[in-house]
Amino acid sequence: MLPEGPSVVAWICLDWADQRHEVRLQAVDSSQVESFSVAQTPEALDAWVCQLRRRFPLGFLAVAVEQSRGPLIYALMKYDFLLLYPVPPKMAADYRKVFSGSGAKSDPQDANLLLDLLRCHRDRLRVWRPDDAQTRQLGLLAEHRRNFVDQRTRLTNQLTSLLKQSYPQALAWAGELGRPAAARFLQQWPSLAAAQQADRSDLRRFYQANGRWDPTALEERLDQVRQAMPLTTDTAVLESSTLMITLLAQQLLVLLSAITQVEKAIAELFPPHPDHALWDSFPGAGAALAPRLLAAFGADRQRFASAVEVQQFAGIAPVTESSGQNRCVHWRWACPQFLRQTLHEFAGCSIPQSAWARAYYQQQRDRGKGHHAAARALAFKWIRILYRCWKDRTAYDEHRYLEALARRGSPLLARVTATTQA
Taking a C-beta distance cutoff of 8 angstroms, is the pair 135, 299 a contact? Predict the structure, then answer.
């Protein structure tokens, strides 16, 4: 849906590249297609857009770009006379296959096809309307935090593997590897020999500073350090593992500090947001997932027209392929991965916190579905509730939803009652 006011006066497409963008331009009242390129620098992009405004002083310029995020979108979003149409990469690739069965690909060819797609099928594309700065910042920080958490998982998996082959006692002595105390322990004593050479008082002070220890249990732990036997005496394994454990522990400490700083920034930005109370009301959302849900739906209530649209866009709804007597239902591949992950994780976290979610999840498991399939089914159901609360700007009320189940005579309510009584 176009903004009110002047209509589109030119079609433009940009095939994004790191250095230069291939550009195609066609005025609405002309059949001539202009071809040129623009450098990927703020100065060059600004000069080009200003030149376009002088050439087309009235009306909107429709711009197709094969991405929805990145430096090009961020550079163009500040110009209010540009209507940005992000084209999903899969849509562009499939459209290319229509005209190039051989799979041949080039930037000029892609630019021509994007222009044709924009002119002929603009009704299939959605104008990109950026959220307000606060919402976008929360979304970016939430995604950065999740990336850091994934990096933490990779580092702790590497450490676990190294410790198992050279220093397995540290898996118990250091504690949970994803915590700063474990990283500090491994940094100070990256090998069994280093731990056994340390003063007993130094180890005692470390444990006392990093947790509450019963004096008897602490002394037993210190005795274990003294009496432990090495898994291997192979110098090559021990020395290389000691170096890698030290380096990985250092990386882990820096990464854990980064996660803390990002979480602090999110904690400062989220409460003042107008939709804070709404997303904070959902069971299981918590400090990590509530901002992610906010970013997933955004602040613009016109972004999604229905809950079904959210289910399909997020990749939670499966894809049905039907031809003749053949019918196949399968996983949706083309979707924003972080968005699908957010809704999937929220559904999983809601199970212990919501009576009906727990009952529905168990119902799916009883039907033979695995954990992830049951969680996706629950996410599918949650999206309808999330959408309605978001659209009405109303906080979630579990009691109110259970009353709605009772009015509809839902068989799920009996399972909720049985689960609650059990």
Answer: yes
The structure tokens listed for 314 are: 């997020």
> The pTM is what?
0.81
CA distances to 289, 296, 317 from 337, rounded to whole Å, are 15, 11, 13
Nearest to 386, CA basis, from 271, 323, 272, 297: 297
Other C-beta atoms lying within 10 Å of the C-beta of residue 88: 16
The Cα–Cα gap between 93 and 81 comes to 28
Question: CB–CB of 263/287 below 8 Å?
Answer: yes
Sheet holding 34-39, edge to edge: 34-39, 20-27, 8-15, 60-65, 82-86
- How far CA 158 is from CA of 84, 154, 195, in Å, comes to 43, 6, 20
Instruction: Report the pLDDT value the prediction gives residue 335, as an integer from 0 to 100.
Output: 75
Rounded to the nearest 5°, which phi and psi values hold at 320?
A: -110, 125
- Phi, psi at residue 266, to the nearest 5°? -65, -40
For residue range 209-234, list pLDDT tens digits in order.
988 788 899 999 999 999 999 999 99
Separation between Cα atoms, residue 22 and residue 19, nearest integer Å? 10
Instruction: Report how far residue 16's alpha carbon sits from residue 40's, in angstroms, rounded to the nearest whole number.
Output: 9
328: tokens are 């196949």
Query: In terms of C-beta distances under 8 Å and separation of at least 24 residues, what long-range contacts does 387-394 make, across chains too?
Result: 387/297, 387/304, 387/306, 387/307, 387/310, 388/307, 389/278, 389/281, 389/282, 390/275, 390/278, 390/297, 390/301, 391/301, 393/275, 393/278, 393/301, 394/278
Alpha-carbon gap, residue 66 to 48, rounded angstroms? 19
